[in-house]
Write a structure and sequence with these properties.
The chain is mostly helical. It has ten helices and no strands.
């Protein structure tokens, strides 16, 4: 059933409240009543949208994956077809998404394992798809000889790992701006992949707008 604009606003407000509550107390420390209090709602109003904090966590994590996958899909359509450019686009979008969605990224990276079994299959499928976008290009780059690596899957995992710690330490009011992060993380990723190419070609693709949880 299609939701009305008012219903969607109510649902979004609860998700924002859930994100804030989980960020402040952690998933295990937060209760459904805490989320309702943060949203300024009574429990019956909250239960209209989500029947548990598990359901709210699932929706927040699913939305993060869907938003990122949509952004990377749009960016890759505009990128040159070779693996170096496509890996560069993936890293740039990932860094921008993490920087624009610090709370959501921390939630995804730290609390996904709290999901119960009923919610795991869809999230696991989204996670595999997301990683596959990078893994495929790294494998192709090794085959073409543009990446000097022994194990492409391990190299791709390392590229993801360095970007995924960004939400743990970076702050928008710090000395490094998003442009600095993008440049530095791209450089480190190319080093991990044993790629010698540098230059403006790798940042020529115009990236789509990145949604933000701010």
């Amino acid at each position: 059933m299609e939701r009305s604009g008012k219903q969607l606003k109510g649902r979004d407000a609860i998700l924002r409240a859930a994100r804030e509550t989980f960020a402040a107390k952690g998933f295990d420390g937060a209760s459904i009543r805490d989320i309702a209090n943060t949203a300024g709602l009574n429990l019956s109003a909250l239960y209209y949208y989500f029947d548990s904090k598990q359901a709210a966590l699932f929706e927040l994590i699913r939305t993060s994956y869907q938003e990122f996958n949509s952004a990377i899909d749009e960016a890759l359509k505009a990128a040159e077809p070779d693996p170096v450019c496509r890996v560069a686009v993936f890293v740039r979008v990932l860094v921008r998404y993490r920087a624009a969605n610090l709370a959501s990224s921390r939630l995804l990276l730290l609390e996904t394992e709290r999901l119960s079994e009923e919610y795991r299959p869809e999230i696991d499928e989204l996670r595999v798809f997301t990683r596959g976008q990078l893994y495929e290009q790294v494998r192709l780059g090794k085959e073409q000889g543009v990446f000097d690596i022994d194990n492409p899957d391990l190299a791709a995992r390392s590229v993801l790992a360095i970007s995924n710690v960004l939400p743990q330490w970076w702050r928008p009011d710090g000395p490094l701006k998003v442009e600095d992060l993008e440049r530095e993380y791209l450089e480190q990723s190319l080093r991990i992949l044993g790629c010698s190419e540098r230059g403006p070609r790798l940042t020529a693709t115009v990236l789509p707008p990145i949604p933000s949880d701010a």
